[in-house]
UniProtKB/TrEMBL annotation:
GO terms for biological process: L-alanine catabolic process. Gene3D superfamilies: NAD(P)-binding Rossmann-like Domain. It comes from Catalinimonas alkaloidigena. Keywords: NAD, Nucleotide-binding, Oxidoreductase. The active site is at residues 96, 270. Its EC number is 1.4.1.1. GO terms for cellular component: plasma membrane. This is Alanine dehydrogenase. GO terms for molecular function: alanine dehydrogenase activity; nucleotide binding. Belongs to the AlaDH/PNT family. Substrate binds at residues 15, 75. It catalyses: L-alanine + NAD(+) + H2O = pyruvate + NH4(+) + NADH + H(+). Residues 4-137 form the Alanine dehydrogenase/pyridine nucleotide transhydrogenase N-terminal domain. Residues 149-297 form the Alanine dehydrogenase/pyridine nucleotide transhydrogenase NAD(H)-binding domain.
């Protein structure tokens, strides 16, 4: 198969979808790999390393899309890329369709095959390609939140861990999944008082067992959230519904109950956000203030630590990339239910229920679509 790795062009996105080690693995199976010039530079991988591993370097993004049968990316295509994606081309990346109707419509019109990292799902309901970036984002949420609590950043001017004789900050984490667990661990490690909310009692029991003493678990509901936001200095939104738009747990009217300088970090912003007033921001301009509350809503948080993020992501994606390249997407998805669940849009039809519901679009069961395909 001919595989293309374009340079990410989203604002301050420095990750890359394949490392030289990944290229070398694909080359062992005689696949042709085209990498755009400087695609890996932001993550610390020069073009020379890709060439040594067996890749061919192309000068621009248009050339990569033109030659490739499968595009492997990190972030969803942005508007300038829409026209480059061809009918029947396989695009393997994070899409987060439910948060963008324009992206969904563009991919439907392209008639490409869109396989989303974030909905590849194991039998135990875990999301193996979301986990590594969720781990990074969860830890970064507290790191960034601590920074924006500083007064020069318009925060409350409070040190997350406090000092002897002075109380530490109160951190509220909404969601006890991978992001929330990592955020709570990070905040607790820095010495904050942490309240971790989730809707699953079994999950809360587990978290109560593994978390340090300065983490309190609490059932997530509107009453408890309204109560806790009055005391929180940092609130981390860490809610995910796979492939669907995140619910608004913190609404616009709740801001008035927060202390001035409270910081909100919505890790779910690339899936629509679980804080109603959060809109996607960039690493260049990461925050804005509404009602004296600081909002940090960067949609590609792991892009700020690209070396760590690229290695963590490609460790997880490479086995799936190899299956798709070796077997073609049809056979790979027929033989691997995890990959099949990653299919979101196929040849102009929505095959993932959450995306169809987000925009009231017709839904086509993936098994029906695949039955009409010729096995590669």
């Amino acid at each position: 198969m001919i595989i293309g790795v374009p340079k990410e062009i989203k604002n301050n996105e420095n990750r890359v979808a394949l490392t030289p080690a990944g290229v070398a693995e694909l080359a062992k199976y005689n696949h042709t790999i085209y990498v755009q010039a400087e695609a890996g530079a932001g993550s610390g991988f020069p073009d020379e390393a890709y060439v040594a591993a067996g890749a061919r370097i192309l000068p621009d993004i248009e050339s990569v899309y033109e030659k490739a049968e499968m595009i492997v990316k990190v972030k969803e295509p942005i508007e300038s890329e829409y026209k480059l994606i061809r009918q029947h081309q396989l695009v393997f990346t994070y899409f987060h369709f439910a948060s963008s109707q324009s992206l969904t419509q563009a991919m439907l019109e392209s008639k490409a095959v869109c396989l989303a990292y974030e909905t590849v799902e194991k039998a135990d309901r875990s999301l193996p390609l979301l986990v590594p970036m969720s781990e990074v984002a969860g830890r970064m949420a507290v790191q960034e939140g601590a920074k924006y609590l500083e007064k020069p950043q318009q925060g409350r001017g409070i040190l997350l861990g406090g000092v002897p004789g002075v109380k530490p900050a109160n951190v509220l984490v909404l969601g006890g999944g991978i992001v929330g667990t990592q955020a709570a661990k990070m905040a607790a490690g820095l010495g904050a008082n942490v309240t971790l909310m989730d809707i699953s009692l079994p999950r809360l029991r587990y978290l109560a067992d593994i978390m340090p003493a300065n983490v309190t678990t609490m059932m997530s509901n509107e009453y408890n959230i309204r109560d806790q936001i009055r005391y929180a200095d940092l609130i981390v939104g860490a809610v995910l519904i796979p492939g669907a738009k995140a619910p608004h747990l913190v609404t616009r009217d709740m801001l008035k109950d927060m202390k001035p300088g409270t910081v909100l970090v919505d890790v779910a912003v690339d899936q629509g956000g679980c804080i109603e007033t959060c809109q996607p921001t960039t690493h260049e301009n990461p925050t804005y203030v509404i009602d004296h509350v600081v909002h940090y809503c960067v949609a590609n948080m792991p892009g700020a630590v690209p070396y760590t993020s690229t290695l963590a992501l490609t460790n997880a994606t490479l086995p799936y990339t190899l299956q798709l390249a070796n077997k073609g997407w049809v056979r790979a998805c027929q033989e691997n239910e995890e990959l099949k669940k990653g299919l979101n849009v196929v040849h102009g039809q929505v095959v993932y229920q959450g995306v169809a519901e987000a925009f009231d679009l017709p839904f086509y069961p993936v098994k029906d679509i695949m039955a009409t395909q010729v096995t590669a």
